[in-house]
């Protein structure tokens, strides 16, 4: 049954149809070739001469190849190959052929498809009637006298008449074999000629890298803004619950801090989610991606831990530096405060924060007491320090965090100037 399925099964029939479509597409080029041959030979015996038709066929193929250089030919060929040739979709390229190599491959495929399709289509039109006539010789005397089979004496020989039905059947099987072989050739060449070129693979890799960078950037923004707010609110709410009956004034201050924290975080969250609703890049980088160092006062006032803040060098206005540097420094401070809330030691000891503007870099140093108990790692947690390192590296800086002399020290150094942009769009890098 397998040989029969290979010749007449669904896949074989679809490939045969694909070849017939190729033959139909070849016809306009073949007719133009026929006209050219007729003009060269005076038009005598044009369609009755096999040699003239072969020349017209040969002239049609270069014209078909020239058509294959159009960019939109490839998606049409890919759609037909996926539907009719049984080629796995992942092996074929998507989109128009943009590069010279892709267009040359498409032209090669288009020419091969039309050449094989023209041959198989011509055989499909001509061979079955001839095979049926040969198979009917023993049963219909009139067939032996037709011009089609040239009623000669040999056709009346008994052995010829006995073999004629088998000969006709063999012709039909040979046609099916030829169609199956041509379809297999196309199916095997499709991934090579219609598959992605090295340039296509590079472009796809760049798109995947850009998409991944955008996802990572959004994940960092959500982690730092929402994660910090939830940590602060959770700890402040717990502290308020423990002294609710003893110190109403403290509880009132805590609730105010929670209100300010959540209000600020809702604004940051709306800004980050706004990136998902935009088709293009935002115009205002600072507003689009989050606050900068100019908003540091509000963060420190309601972060949930006391902070001893020092500033060295640089302009009086923290927002005067390059927006991307200011923004990333703010996020690093925010994540450092979140870590101090979750894993710090004595809550009465303030977190030390130093922001120093050097000649070419911005240095952020944060220190908080180490906790007496090991920090409990949350399921799926542990992304904060990695996010800090990613932010620093994307700007061309560096960051490290480790215990030093009984305190946990976070140090980040960022370049003051990011070449070529007023703000980093990581997804475009």
UniProtKB/TrEMBL annotation:
One protein family per Pfam: HisKA_3
InterPro entries per the UniProt record, alphabetical: HATPase_C_sf (IPR036890), Sensor_HK_TwoCompSys (IPR050482), Sig_transdc_His_kin_sub3_dim/P (IPR011712)
**Under which EC number(s) is this enzyme classified?**
2.7.13.3
Can you state which reaction this protein catalyses?
ATP + protein L-histidine = ADP + protein N-phospho-L-histidine
- Keywords for this protein: ATP-binding, Kinase, Membrane, Nucleotide-binding, Phosphoprotein, Transferase, Transmembrane, Transmembrane helix, Two-component regulatory system
Alphabetized GO MF terms: kinase activity
Keyword Nucleotide-binding in the entry? The reply is: yes
At the top of the EC hierarchy, this enzyme's class is: transferase
| Residue stretches making up the Signal transduction histidine kinase subgroup 3 dimerisation and phosphoacceptor domain | 215-279
**Membrane spanning stretches:** 16-42, 54-73, 107-140, 160-182
UniProt-listed PANTHER family:
NITRATE/NITRITE SENSOR PROTEIN NARX-RELATED, NITRATE_NITRITE SENSOR PROTEIN NARQ
* Protein known as: histidine kinase
The species this protein belongs to is: Streptomyces durocortorensis
């Amino acid at each position: 049954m397998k040989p029969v399925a290979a010749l007449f099964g669904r896949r074989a029939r679809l490939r045969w149809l694909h070849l017939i479509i190729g033959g139909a597409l070849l016809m306009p080029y073949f007719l133009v070739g026929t006209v050219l041959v007729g003009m060269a030979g005076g038009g005598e015996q044009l369609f009755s001469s096999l040699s003239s038709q072969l020349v017209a066929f040969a002239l049609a193929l270069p014209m078909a190849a020239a058509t294959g250089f159009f960019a939109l030919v490839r998606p049409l060929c890919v759609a037909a190959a996926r539907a009719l040739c049984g080629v796995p979709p992942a092996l074929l390229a998507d989109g128009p052929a943009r590069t010279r190599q892709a267009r040359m491959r498409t032209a090669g495929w288009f020419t091969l498809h039309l050449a094989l399709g023209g041959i198989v289509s011509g055989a499909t039109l001509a061979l079955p009637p001839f095979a049926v006539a040969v198979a009917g010789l023993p049963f219909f005397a009139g067939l032996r006298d037709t011009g089609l089979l040239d009623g000669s004496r040999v056709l009346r020989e008994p052995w010829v008449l006995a073999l004629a039905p088998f000969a006709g059947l063999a012709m039909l099987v040979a046609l099916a074999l030829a169609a199956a072989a041509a379809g297999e050739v196309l199916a095997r060449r499709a991934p090579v000629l219609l598959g992605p070129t090295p340039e296509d693979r590079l472009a796809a890799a760049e798109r995947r890298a850009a998409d991944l960078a955008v996802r990572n950037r959004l994940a960092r923004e959500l982690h730092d803004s929402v994660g910090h707010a939830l940590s602060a609110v959770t700890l402040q709410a717990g502290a308020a619950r423990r002294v609710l009956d003893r110190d109403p004034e403290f509880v009132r201050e805590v609730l105010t801090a929670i209100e300010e924290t959540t209000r600020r975080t809702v604004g940051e969250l709306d800004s980050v989610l706004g990136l998902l609703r935009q088709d293009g890049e935002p115009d205002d980088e600072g507003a689009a991606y989050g606050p900068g160092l100019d908003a540091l006062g509000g963060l420190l006032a309601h972060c949930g831990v006391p902070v001893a803040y020092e500033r060295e060098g640089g302009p009086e206005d923290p927002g005067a530096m390059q927006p991307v540097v200011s923004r990333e420094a703010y996020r690093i401070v925010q994540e450092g405060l979140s870590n101090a809330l979750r894993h710090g030691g004595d809550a009465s000891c303030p977190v030390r924060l130093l922001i120093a503007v050097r000649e070419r870099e911005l240095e952020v140093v944060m220190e908080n007491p180490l906790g007496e108990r090991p920090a409990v790692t949350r399921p799926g947690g542990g992304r904060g320090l990695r996010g800090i390192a990613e932010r620093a590296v994307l700007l061309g800086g560096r960051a490290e965090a480790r215990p030093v002399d009984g305190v946990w020290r976070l140090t980040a150094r960022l370049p003051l100037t990011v070449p070529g942009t007023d703000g980093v769009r990581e997804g475009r890098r």
